[in-house]
């Protein structure tokens, strides 16, 4: 494996380990019956967008300036719309309406959608190896979610499930339709524009929930959780994604979604809130094998190169036989 791909895989491990930890940590910050002093998911959405925008623009001041064309700024606005705004805002809205188990299972369709959309936008082939890896990883992630869920006290909601499905479609669209503009600039440049647009929209939509938060009543633990979500699960993780997009195919990038429930389970086991038995071990193995199979599947460029070599060999053989 070349250095670029190693860098891409390392970036995805960092992002998805943090996102896996974000599930239990972020949930502890949100307002609920058990945590009446928390913040609303809509206020948290604003913290993420505005906080990340400030961090990315601050980081850009320390790096060489990149000129972004007007056309690409427009493309980055739509990348922000699909990759951040619709993805994050609809997910949080859906999570507030439906059960955590529904949202977790719906999130596993992202690699399936990405594989399908990659054939539309990037003309990437769906090989048996790739399809097998995607569905094996999906099965492992769903099994892990099902055996790890305890009584949540939440009921399903058709509206919430639909919102989460639209969120998943939005992120898969971002990974495939906007890859060209994402890899054209540095990760910091890409994300500073995407989060600027997201922050403006988030403040405009969620201004009221933002000002309704009783900031004086927030505990240091809640502030610490908010800091983790903004700095870790937003700034650092979203910085890693365009690095991975530069070196890896969209389906490979999306496959790391299946690592998140595994990280969440290992975290709850580590703090004594869950156990790790044979069933979870088998589910984890399915996830890892699925990711490996997709990584090993051939890209369009590889298949075209093989086809060209085959034609060249046939032409050479034809010349010799004359």
From TrEMBL:
Membrane topology type: Multi-pass membrane protein
GO annotations of cellular component type: membrane
Membrane-spanning segments: 12-34, 46-63, 75-95, 101-121, 128-148, 160-178, 190-210, 222-243, 255-273, 279-295
Subcellular location: Membrane
Domain spans labelled EamA: 7-145, 159-295
Sorted UniProt keywords: Membrane, Transmembrane, Transmembrane helix
Keyword match Transmembrane helix: yes
UniProt signal peptide: none
Pfam families, alphabetized: EamA
Main location: membrane
Annotated family: Belongs to the EamA transporter family.
Name of the featured protein: DMT family transporter
Higher taxonomy: Bacteria, Pseudomonadati, Bacteroidota, Bacteroidia, Bacteroidales
